[in-house]
Amino acid sequence: MNPITTEESALLSLDELAARFGAAARALWPDADPVVQFEPARRPEFGDVATNVAFGLARVARKKPQDIGGEIIARAMEDDRVRATVSQATAIAGFINLTLQPAFWQRVVGDVLREGDAYGRGNPNRERVSLEFGSANPTGPLVIVQGRTLSIGDTLARAMRHAGYDVFTEWIINDAGSQIGALGRSVYARYRQLFDSAFPFPDDGYPGDYLIPLAESLRARDGDRWLHVPEAEASEVFAGFARDAIVAEQQAVARRFGVEYDLWQSEQALHDAGTIERGIQRLREMGVLYEKDGATWLRTTDAGDDEDRVVVRSDGRPTYFANDIAYHYEKLQRADHVIDFLGPDHHGYVKRLDTLANAYGKPGAFEVVIVQQITLKRGDEILSMSKRAGQLVTLAEVIDEVGVDAARFFFVMLSTDQPLTFDLELAKRQSSDNPVFYVQYGHARIASVLRKARESHAAQLAAAERGEGLAALAEPAELALARRLAEFGPTVAGVARARAPHRLTKYARDVASDFHQFYDACRVLGDDPAVTTARLGLAIATGTVLATTLALCRVSAPDAM
């Protein structure tokens, strides 16, 4: 790899530029405490990066932001290293806009070539994060709702790790509620129907055909044994059998989908270990519980809830919320921050978890990310989905039809607060209007260029891999692509901070678009060895960033399409 040149060593980073522009502002207005942060400019013709610091200084300086921006620029440009890094600085509509020297962006390409898939990785920040996502009742196969939360949660976990967080992923097996009893009765009915098709199915059961193979397995193992024992006894056994089989299937599908959890936590195991009772006792000792009408209540109204919540019913049975109390206390023992992904019908849990965090002396430690609903369609046809009605489109079926790559990319494309419509036909289409195909084709195109280079420009390819000759990058399309590569680290950091993994899919599409424009505008394998070397270096760097972005989404980066 080539060493850093004297010219490159004189260049400032964006953080260093921000610090020097901030110092210039403080020198002009000592009573102010300006925060300068450079972001990509709103429009390319304005420059490469911009900051809105002048707007925040308007009240202190008692001047128009446009005039403030001009004064800051004049002061900052007195610095030799600022002038070495910035080719043009202008104040436009109150924003300070900078156009950076081509060497700045050439250095970015060199950084990618030197660091490889570690490019953009943040330093460990020592923040331990518990991330729970995808959890589903163990009463049936995973469906597309879990497909979305699996994709979003796992992508966020990968991005947060890349950004420097210590992330621990969890799945709660909801096997201690009334739904397990209903599951047992449903399997029992399916078992009896193998011997008598007229045997009635319970009204609160799960009518999907997915329980029939479980009943057949029980018959193959035990014959007619369960015809001769009380229904309640058989149903309890069947509930445990079905729960174990369904959880094993859920785990297998999650692994197939590229998701591995650090912990699969059984809710029933928390009960069996006495964790629930100990959690309630801790809150009682903290003085945040009270008795009313024979029940035990938690003062969730202190955190803004519309009413206090029952923890222990008047008959002594703990509520589902009591399970959360214990489980979240367990999470806090191994994490500084707890993030739960929940469905759109769980808004009420936010205030309750705030109450727990306050009671445990860690205000703000709990965070809920609400994931909106998903609609599945095939072309113009909307597909119905209801576990209770027996109408299921399983995640495994979606994977079979469109593949892991398309499913994961599509599931994570929109923000969690937006409902998602997943078009199976679009996900399978091999054309540029299919976003995952478009991005993967960009990586495959880069791989194709490099394969050709090994045959026709081997010397230039070897030099490019060493990061040599990047000073030849000067065309607008080249520098635009390099600027996009520079956004990778800040993009991942922003994904981690905002819990916004959908930004990664947008970034991947932007990188692919910029590469396609570069490829169309600039001949990579040409007659000029210096230019060819530089452009191959840019292509290699782009392939690296694109592959790393896709890897964070757990989507493959193919070398051929």
CATH architectural group of the domain at 432-552: Orthogonal Bundle
Main sheet makeup: 5 strands, parallel
Mean pLDDT: 92
> Which term fits the overall shape?
globular
Computed Rg: 29 Å
DSSP, total strands: 15
CATH structural class of the domain at 432-552: Mainly Alpha
Uncertain runs are none
Instruction: Let me know the CATH homologous superfamily of the domain at 432-552.
Output: Isoleucyl-tRNA Synthetase, Domain 1
> What's the total helix number?
23
Describe this protein with a few key phrases.
561 residues; alpha/beta; Gyrase A, domain 2; Isoleucyl-tRNA Synthetase, Domain 1; 5-stranded parallel beta sheet; 15 strands
How would you describe this protein?
The protein is of the alpha/beta class. Among the domains are: 6-100, Gyrase A, domain 2 (2-Layer Sandwich); 178-256, no CATH class; 432-552, Orthogonal Bundle (Isoleucyl-tRNA Synthetase, Domain 1). It is built from 23 helices and 15 strands. It has a 5-stranded parallel beta sheet, sandwiched between helices. Strands 1-2-4-3 form a 4-stranded antiparallel beta sheet. The protein starts with 5 loop residues before the first helix and ends in a 9-residue tail after the last helix. The relative contact order is 0.11.
Give the SSE layout.
Layout: H1 6-9, H2 14-28, E1 39-40, E2 49-51, H3 53-61, H4 65-76, H5 80-85, E3 86-92, E4 95-100, H6 102-115, E5 128-132, H7 144-163, E6 166-173, H8 178-193, H9 212-222, H10 231-256, E7 263-266, H11 267-272, H12 275-286, E8 289-292, E9 295-298, E10 309-312, H13 320-334, E11 337-342, H14 349-359, E12 366-370, E13 374-378, E14 381-382, H15 395-402, H16 404-412, E15 420-423, H17 424-428, H18 435-456, H19 458-465, H20 476-486, H21 488-498, H22 502-521, H23 529-552
Parallel strand pairs: 5-6, 5-11, 6-7, 11-12, 13-15
Antiparallel strand pairs: 1-2, 2-4, 3-4, 8-9, 9-10, 13-14
Helix pairs in contact: 2-4, 3-4, 6-20, 6-23, 7-16, 7-21, 8-9, 8-10, 12-13, 15-16, 18-19, 18-22, 18-23, 19-23, 20-22, 20-23, 21-22, 22-23
